[in-house]
Amino acid sequence: MNVKFLIPSNEDIKNGLITDKYFIWTEKVLKAKGINPKVAMEVTTSEWGIFAGLEDALNLLEGIPVDVYAMPEGSLFFPHEPVMTVVGRYLDFARFETAILGFLCHASGIAKQSFKFKLACGDKKVYSFGTRRAHPAISAMIERAALIGGVDGVSNFIAEKYLGVESIGTMPHALIISFGDQVSAWKAFDEVVDKKVPRTLLIDTYYDEKTEAILAVENLDRVDGVRLDTPSSRKGNFRKIIEEVKWELKIRGKEKVKIFLSGGLKLEDVIKLRDLADAFGVGTAISAAKPVDFAMDIVEKDGKFCAKRGKRSGMKQVYRDWNKLEDEVRLFTDEKPEGKEPMLKKFMENGKILLKTDFKEARELALKQMELIKKLGREDEFLTSE
User: What is the distance, to the nearest Å, from the Cα of residue 5 to the centroid of all Cα atoms in its chain?
Assistant: First the structure.
């Protein structure tokens, strides 16, 4: 069976077909006039974020005679500083700007939002549950970026093939409805599913959450957690509902049963409920996160400073003071400031990848920066700002 989804192939992307039409006209004009300057193009934005998408950008540019300098994935970046610089003859990579920005903007937006959720929930767990709200073709990218941002796990099974991480999950309402009653479904799940999988039972299918929580602990020997997936249309005072469930569990000696929340959660929900819940399954707020609004601009041409209005000329380096988690931007050729680390590393030389990316290392870097933010007492700065 020949199945065709409306998904451009890897070859289409690599061959530069994923591009804005004005780059096609630009190529035509520059070639006709014999103009092909050597340029340095920087990727910047006016917001903060967590850098992701570099792996795809490097794979796109591999084999093209350019040098690439970039922050490692997982790096916290601040407004108006370069996260990536491409140096080479303009016509060699002009048409790839669209795809480069697409890789970086989308992945960094998801990583940033994941970072904010993990920062907000403190020592509680947060999981990426939202790939059903996005095109299936990008599900692995979404889960990778979410992990870089700091989530504790992902729900899409495809992560096991493409990322080598075990996916996680509980049960859908469809399982319970298929059996016709909650207890039969819960018991069947317990009998069939691997014992290493937590018994987190969905408790809002037919009755109110309190009633189903009681039903669960009174009919099953093992209940590790209960999941409240209550839709917004029926939530009411969600905090009171959770408090009720916790009370009923406690008086039955089941206070160790975890409270898992899901169902249209937003960042403010996590902040309001983190004292009651043990884990959060976040869907659309992560998978449909606003992309980081990166732009890619020429800052040097044939060794001379140049830039359009609103941009600063000259190829630059970013230096970080890790004690204060503050950055300083200088020209790339300027002297390195004492006690600060250069953030832009050389990832590619003449089309050859020099440094490999690793999303697990990227995640560790993001979490390291998160701990610094907490240590410095700057949580509100990152949770309240766009």
Answer: 25
Residues in the chain: 386
Q: Does 161 reside within a domain?
A: no
Q: What is the pTM of this model?
A: 0.95
Residue 70 CA: distances (Å) to CA of 55, 133, 189, 336, 350: 11, 30, 47, 17, 15
* Pairing outcome for strands 352-353 and 345-349: antiparallel
What is the full per-residue pLDDT of the chain (386 aa) written as tens digits?
A: 677 899 999 999 999 999 999 999 999 999 999 999 999 999 999 999 999 999 999 999 999 999 999 999 999 999 999 999 999 999 999 999 999 999 999 999 999 999 999 999 999 999 999 999 999 999 999 999 999 999 999 999 999 999 999 999 999 999 999 999 999 999 999 999 999 999 999 999 999 999 999 999 999 999 999 999 976 656 678 899 999 999 999 999 999 999 999 999 999 999 999 999 999 999 999 999 999 999 999 999 999 999 999 999 999 999 999 999 999 999 999 999 999 999 999 999 999 999 999 999 999 999 999 999 999 999 999 999 87
Q: Which domain holds residue 306?
A: 10-109+291-384
Which of 215, 241, 262 is the C-terminal boundary of a domain?
Answer: 262
Do 256 and 199 lie in a common domain?
yes
Tokens of 190: 């317990």
Inter-CA distances, 47 with 146, 285, 294, Å:
19, 18, 9
**289 touches 295 (CB < 8 A):** no
Q: Which residue has the tokens 């479904």?
A: 185
Residue where a domain stops, chosen among 246, 262, 278: 262
Which of 193, 251, 190 lies closest to 220 in space, CA to CA?
190
The C-alpha atoms of residue 143 and residue 140 are separated, in whole angstroms, by 5
- How many domains does the chain contain in total? 2
Q: CA 242, CA 113: separation in Å to the nearest integer?
A: 25
